[in-house]
Amino acid sequence: MFDRKVEESIKQALSRQAAVALLGPRQVGKTTLAQTIAAQLNALYLDLEDPQDRAKLSEPASFLGAYEDRLVILDEIHRAPDLFQTLRGEIDRGRRKGHRTGRFLLLGSASIDLMQQSGESLAGRISYIDMTPLAVDELPAHAQDTLWLRGGFPDSFLAQDDTTSMAWRRDLVRTYLERDVPMFGSRVPAETLRRFWTMLAHNQGALLNASRLAQGLEVKSQTVSRYVDLLVDLLLVRRLQPYQSNVGKRLVKSPKVYIRDTGLLHALLNIGDHPTLLGHPVVGASWEGFVIENLIGAAPPLTVPGFYRTAGGAEIDLVLELPGGERWAIEVKRSHAARPARGFHEACEDLKPVRRLVVHGGADSYPISQTVEAIGLATLMQGLTRLR
Asked: What local confidence, expressed as pLDDT, does residue 3 receive?
């Protein structure tokens, strides 16, 4: 059991809100963490995939009303979408009796679907917290390369060897294709979605070109957009939006697309060990996605992430607009002796960021020039965490 940073966030949210939704991909550790919290807070835990637990909620108002003074944890809440109206009534009744906070912890695997269902019924009564796979700052420093290769799903990261880890991730991909996608109502053939997911992996960090992807799949562009929406909703793909700024230049408007967990990225591309990864054409884009995902996870709430690119070639891999409007410009390079390209300097002249950083593959921090600093990933994450 790892100490997860998100645990404290959950407890703080429960102390100020009646309901908290914990969102994260399947097998990311939500249930393990929820059961830990249940033991600490004497909470009632119900798994809505368990027929016996679902049967307890055949009369949900009566059952939940008996536990108005305890936290109730509902796992796989998307299995019971009709329950949200009941939760609203229970929360409102509890408030009149003085039970205003810490009533329900809801666990789900699809962000947009769950947020829409809960938002319609529980507006003003619920907080949302994202749980990501394991991050660099949750593990020892020597584990960074293993985390990059295997990804942050705990069972994959902790596997006894790379072969076992790869087999686990392939099984997870199959589970998503054959079980989770149909569960959320999308009539997408499993093989078609696998091909599409693999195409995105080959184009890790590239601008989303729906027309070109549609040609490869022999479908319409609108269908590609629907597939991307589905994978984003399942928290498997990140759509990094272009950072908008009034600089008087023609800016790229298409988003970049990343497979969020590099372990799944490597499984889709049959990359099973470090020598294969380091010799693969995707190595630079894989490292870029790994860094971006970790930095966004470490950034303070309400931080706006994006990338910056102009038609003239000025480019910044990651722009973080922190709460208050301060901007950080971040270039990602795998080499320990990395230096930013000319386009980075041009883009920084456009945006005038407060900090200009190059995240490299090592741990050292050192100045590259009077305005640009090289820094290790873990060190930069620690700096962002201190701003929370």
From this structure: 85
Q: What is the DSSP string of 116-156?
A: HHHHHHHTTTEEEEE-PSP-GGGS-GGGHHHHHHH-S-HHH
Q: Are residues 63 and 190 in the same domain?
A: no
**Residue 366 domain boundaries:** 136-386
Same domain as 115, residue 245: no
pTM: 0.93
Residue 185 has pLDDT above 60, yes or no: no
In a domain, 94, yes or no: yes
Q: How many structural domains are present in the chain?
A: 2
Q: What is the pLDDT of residues 35-80, one digit of tens each?
A: 999 999 999 999 999 999 999 999 999 999 999 999 999 998 888 8
